[in-house]
Description:
Blueprint: H1 2-13, E1 14-20, E2 26-31, H2 33-37, H3 40-51, E3 60-64, H4 68-79, E4 82-86, E5 99-100, E6 108-112, H5 120-131, E7 135-140
Parallel strand pairs: 3-4, 3-6, 6-7
Antiparallel strand pairs: 1-2, 4-5
Amino acid sequence: MKSEIACRIFKKAHLTGEFKLRSGLVSNEYFDKYLFESEPKLLLDIVEYMKGLIPEDAEIIAGLEMGGIPVVTALSIVSNKEAVFVRKHAKEYGTCKLAEGPNIAGKKVCIVEDVVTTGGQIILSAHELRKQGAIVENVIC
């Protein structure tokens, strides 16, 4: 199942050209996450597989802005785990939250990301979630 899903993701979302990555590096290959996240059947198959990767003791799954949000939403539905939606920066109005959704303080939170290049945003978000009291030990992508 894993290799079949990987082939479908590659076929749907692999692009060639010149792409500047978040890290600042330039790549001649790119995976456009929105191409696989917007296809319902493929996204469902991805999260059905990912459901088995969630640690048993994870209480909450956390999707990172912006690409991790559709994945964590679908994963929450199939896994029956509560989800939080993690911003890159806390809102400066309203609730002023970094993580939208249930309270994460003292909870075991598994970060969910769609595509990883260097892991930089995951590291930053894990640090911020820990400052909010979350116990972050796992990431799935």
